[in-house]
Design a protein that fits this description.
71 residues, mainly beta, 1 helix, 5 strands
């Protein structure tokens, strides 16, 4: 199964896949240490993404910055 987003939420991790979402009791560090593939990138202390699933990146650093939620 290929994950496309892992988001830390307290003692749990929200795992998003192409077909289903999961909530697991684990730490992001523990999951990251067990990844064998190099397609995953930790972009924030609470997020790991599968960078092969990125379609577009928007620059929202201007004066009209919007809050960006990866969901």
């Amino acid at each position: 199964m290929k994950y496309f987003l892992l988001k830390a939420k307290g003692d749990y991790i929200e795992v998003k896949t192409d077909k289903k979402d999961y909530r697991v009791h684990n730490t992001l560090k523990n999951i990251k240490d067990n990844f064998q593939e190099s397609i995953y990138l930790q972009i924030h202390r609470s997020f790991i993404i599968n960078f092969t699933k990125i379609i577009d990146i928007e620059d929202n650093s201007g004066p009209h910055r919007k809050k960006c939620d990866p969901y």
